[in-house]
């Protein structure tokens, strides 16, 4: 294979890397030839190539359509099927040479801009600004980074043109000499470089410019300060059909630029044809149009809310920064060249456990690939991605020989580094990739490679549970097999993406136990790939995994319909809709076969994914129906949803009757589960089980233990369960445990399962006894009990018992039960949480009395007051004495509101339960504390 022939064809598809916009001379001539690694084994240099400015956006590599060279064809179509393992060396050599050429070109431009020794780097954007970061290192280069590394400004080189962007309107500052005037010299050099290719200029005698979304007078002043004439041209640069851009030398954009389709490609077109493009972002506020302009220049705008909360180090450059240090910070190719060179060595001298910096540029490319594909960019149909394509194809060729679990990062650093790179340089939005033939470690067994996939498209309807989030689709991508996805109905969502798995922890080969080797792909879940608005989106992954839909801008409860082919069925259970017995049987069979790495389940308000090994372990001798339906759904999720009063659970007759009696809307949309709690059984982010969303752990998802109900409680707990006084009380890690305790109570009644997580009724009673023994009276007595009980330092179990004591009073006085039952206690929680939402979301001045809130001007009611008023209305008793017994200080508005209900005042009462028998309600005994304090009966 003639490397020089391949290099020539590739470089005709490059741009600044082989000359053009990156030239310091302002012409399209090639820059000074690099030395050293720029020659390949055939002795042919990349300097021996034709002028690069033949390329047109969207056409890929010129001439490759007709070339019979397999490497050139691979670079065009994104597949290595026509290549052999021997071609890896060629691809790596070409990538190394190309990265080196980019280094020379970019560093030369930076050196020119910073060549004036009088130009100071000191600059402060203030927090009313946004980051400007590099999205594609083959187009953009960091110009200025803040002291903490955040991007402040960047330059771009593409075709014959150049670009410049700042995260603050520095052009206005310098043109008007209003702020940061010490930056004048440096900004002027960057401004001149964009226009002429030379930082020292000079500018032409007359500079013609056009602006969109930016103040033209600032540009005029900037040009005039250099003694040149400025000629403004009226032109809507965001309009795809405009031709007036051709008259201008300089095109300046601001955050007011309209967000028009294809604007990023239009910016690329301007630069390709030699135009100077500048973007100034004025503040921390987002700009959709500005993002497109920056995307055209290979840059990205920081996320919401910009730098609003940044420290000074995130928005400024201090006076101690040297030019040499800044050039080093902006050099984004030298480390990559070094890593690529080491990857080409069979046994490089590395101790990666002690110094993993050699992997840093690999990860940087990985992150850039993720951003590109997430924005819908197709690497193999974009002329700016030449270097990325070479790296992705090299990764494809290396991948088949990887054996996870057998690579030690210190004794086999070369193999480790190459595996790390192959795992990192990925393209998911295409039709072909390769797989590690030995399997993907504990992420996916080798048996999954042979799973059958659908040959024809099937229509799949997916319920969107909330406005934005991630939800399982119910189909899987098989390693190496392409999936085609088409949107039939977007359900009103503004954005739809597809990805495999929803994980936040997946191990790290750089820090995992070295004796266990490189255990699994470094990031086995895919990037989130934007689905096209029309037509099919191609998707393929070397690792496989359950397919998930990532969505935003949606309406909860709507349905998205996708047409999918090339996907597999696996052990997935969907309880958000009616499943046929055949569907359940298929999922059960897949679970028993264990030929796919994961089992998933989808429920209203919750989703689980766990490795098939954990799923099988949790299931044990139970049938999948008993495990998935009987435990996960009926115990874990249903218990939480009943206690939270969600409308996916049927109301008991007692709850329905009281909702009617109170004239409450207990079934409306505000009672939907507010968010989906995801559980992952594989690897924990922290500890053994780790809270959050997703919540993950080194365990399968169990429906009978309190751990997962505790985590589910985090995501669903309502304010009526968080009781605080002076900053102390039942807060996070206590309020959510009230829901976990409700789960324990319900599962004991239904299944006889009595696991831990005590609600300490004897401890609560001891606090009452001690408080009464203090001989205090009135408010002093209440405050003493408040100090004893409502402090996490004294333990949360007695605090949590208070809510259950209120539930027991509901059982006695509203359900008329001699002894409390689980059902009536859960009825109390159902009504309490429904009422909490009604007060919060259905409040107005005409209906507040039906919630018992007659004396409140609005619904900004503190939590103790809310619990007191709602509990009094639900139980049908004025509970002021009971709440005083528990140390509640209540507002006069709350006391008067309950008085307006004309309810009988209830004396102090307590339902005693034996230690460890908190779920055994029939074994308890009522105590009357109205006049004496009886001894605890157990």
Automatic annotation (TrEMBL):
Q: What GO molecular function annotation could you give as one example from this UniProt entry?
A: metallopeptidase activity
Q: What is this protein called?
A: ImpA family metalloprotease
SMART domains for the chain:
M60-like (SM01276)
The family database entries (Pfam families) matched by this protein are listed as: IMPa_helical (PF18642), IMPa_N_2 (PF18650)
What residue stretches are annotated with the Peptidase M60 domain?
468-797
Signal peptide location in the record? 1-17
List its EC numbers. Answer: 3.4.24.-
List the InterPro entries hit by this protein, alphabetically.
IMPa_helical (IPR041549), IMPa_N_2 (IPR040711), Pep_M60_3 (IPR042279), Peptidase_M60_dom (IPR031161)
Record's keyword terms, sorted: Hydrolase, Metalloprotease, Protease, Signal
Region annotation Disordered: where it falls in the sequence: 22-67
The organism's superkingdom is given as: Bacteria
Q: Where is the composition biased (Low complexity)?
A: 25-45
């Amino acid at each position: 294979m003639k490397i020089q022939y391949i290099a020539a064809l590739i470089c005709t598809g490059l741009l600044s890397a082989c000359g053009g916009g990156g030239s310091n001379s302002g012409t399209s001539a090639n820059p000074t030839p690099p030395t050293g690694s720029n020659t390949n084994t055939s002795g042919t240099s990349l300097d021996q190539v034709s002028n690069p400015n033949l390329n047109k956006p969207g056409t890929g590599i010129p001439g490759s359509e007709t070339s019979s060279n397999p490497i050139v064809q691979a670079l065009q179509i994104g597949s290595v099927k026509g290549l052999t393992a021997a071609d890896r060396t060629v691809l790596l050599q070409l990538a190394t040479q190309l990265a080196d050429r980019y280094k020379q070109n970019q560093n030369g431009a930076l050196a020119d801009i910073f060549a004036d020794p009088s130009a100071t780097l000191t600059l402060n954007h203030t927090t009313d600004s946004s980051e400007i970061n590099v999205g594609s290192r083959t187009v953009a280069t960091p110009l200025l980074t803040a002291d903490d590394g955040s991007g402040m400004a960047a330059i771009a080189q593409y075709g014959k043109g150049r670009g410049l962007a700042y995260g603050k309107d520095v052009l206005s500052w310098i043109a008007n000499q209003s702020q940061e005037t010490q930056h004048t010299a440096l900004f002027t050099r960057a401004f001149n470089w964009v226009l002429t290719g030379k930082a020292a200029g000079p500018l032409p005698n007359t500079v013609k410019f056009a602006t969109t979304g930016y103040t033209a007078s600032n540009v005029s002043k900037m040009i005039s300060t250099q003694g040149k004439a400025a000629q403004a041209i009226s032109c809507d640069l965001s309009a795809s059909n405009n031709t007036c851009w051709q008259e201008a030398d300089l095109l300046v954009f601001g955050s007011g630029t309209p967000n028009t389709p294809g604007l990023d490609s239009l910016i690329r077109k301007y630069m390709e044809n030699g135009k100077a493009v500048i973007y100034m972002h004025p503040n921390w506020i987002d700009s959709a149009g500005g993002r497109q302009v920056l995307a055209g220049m290979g840059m990205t705008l920081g996320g919401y809310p910009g730098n609003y909360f940044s420290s000074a180090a995130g928005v400024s450059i201090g006076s101690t920064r040297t030019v040499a240090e800044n050039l080093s910070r902006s050099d984004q190719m030298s480390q990559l060249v070094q890593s690529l060179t080491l990857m080409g060595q069979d046994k490089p001298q590395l101790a990666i456990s002690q110094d993993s910096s050699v992997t840093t540029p690999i990860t940087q490319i990985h992150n850039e690939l993720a951003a590109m594909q997430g924005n819908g960019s197709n690497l193999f149909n974009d002329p700016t991605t030449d270097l990325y394509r070479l790296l992705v194809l090299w990764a494809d060729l290396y991948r088949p020989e990887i054996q996870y679990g057998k690579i030690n990062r210190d004794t086999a650093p070369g193999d480790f580094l190459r595996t790390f790179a192959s795992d990192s340089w990925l393209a998911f939005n295409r039709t072909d990739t390769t797989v590690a033939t030995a399997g993907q470690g504990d992420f996916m067994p080798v048996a999954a490679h042979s799973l059958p996939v659908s040959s024809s498209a099937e229509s799949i309807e997916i319920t969107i549970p909330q406005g934005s989030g991630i939800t399982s689709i119910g189909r899987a991508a098989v390693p190496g097999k392409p999936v085609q996805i088409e949107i039939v109905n977007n359900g009103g969502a503004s954005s739809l993406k597809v990805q495999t798995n929803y994980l936040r922890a997946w191990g790290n080969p750089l820090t995992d136990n070295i004796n266990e080797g490189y255990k699994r792909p470094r990031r086995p879940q895919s990037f989130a790939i934007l689905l096209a608005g029309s037509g099919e989106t191609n998707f393929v992954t070397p690792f496989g995994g359950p397919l998930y839909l990532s969505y935003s801008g949606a309406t909860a409860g709507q349905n998205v319909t996708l047409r999918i082919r090339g996907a597999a069925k696996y052990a997935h259970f969907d309880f958000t809709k009616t499943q046929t017995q055949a569907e359940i049987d298929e999922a059960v069979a897949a679970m028993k076969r264990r030929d796919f790495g994961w089992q998933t389940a989808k429920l209203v308000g919750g989703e689980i994914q766990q490795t098939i090994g954990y799923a099988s372990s949790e299931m044990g001798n139970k049938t999948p129906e008993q495990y998935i339906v009987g435990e996960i759904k009926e115990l874990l999720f249903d218990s939480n949803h009943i206690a939270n009063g969600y409308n996916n659970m049927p109301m008991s007759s007692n709850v329905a009757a009281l909702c009617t009696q109170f004239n409450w809307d207990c079934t409306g949309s505000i009672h939907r589960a507010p968010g989906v709690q995801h559980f992952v059984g594989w690897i924990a982010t922290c500890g053994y089980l780790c809270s959050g969303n997703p919540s993950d752990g080194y365990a399968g998802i169990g429906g009978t233990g309190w751990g997962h109900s505790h985590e589910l409680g985090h995501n669903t707990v309502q304010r009526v369960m968080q009781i605080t006084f002076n900053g102390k009380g039942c807060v996070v890690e206590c309020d959510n445990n009230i829901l976990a305790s409700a789960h324990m109570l319900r599962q004991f009644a239904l299944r006889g399962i009595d696991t831990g997580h005590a609600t300490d009724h004897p401890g609560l009673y001891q606090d009452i006894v001690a408080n009464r023994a203090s001989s205090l009276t009135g408010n002093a007595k209440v405050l003493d009990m408040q100090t004893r009980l409502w402090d996490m330092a004294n333990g949360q179990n007695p605090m949590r018992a208070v809510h259950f004591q209120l539930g027991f009073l509901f059982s006695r006085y509203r359900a008329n039960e001699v002894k409390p039952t689980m059902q009536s206690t859960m009825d109390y929680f159902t009504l309490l949480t429904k009422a909490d939402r009604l007060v919060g979301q259905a409040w107005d001045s005409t209906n507040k009395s039906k919630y018992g809130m007659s004396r409140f001007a609005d619904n900004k009611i503190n939590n103790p007051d809310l619990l007191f008023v709602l509990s009094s209305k639900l139980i049908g008793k004025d509970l002021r004495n009971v709440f005083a017994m528990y140390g509640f200080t209540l507002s006069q508005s709350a006391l008067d509101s309950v008085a307006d209900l004309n309810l009988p005042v209830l004396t102090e009462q307590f339902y005693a339960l034996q230690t460890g028998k908190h779920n055994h309600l029939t074994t308890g005994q009522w105590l009357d504390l109205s006049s004496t304090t009886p001894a605890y009966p157990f």
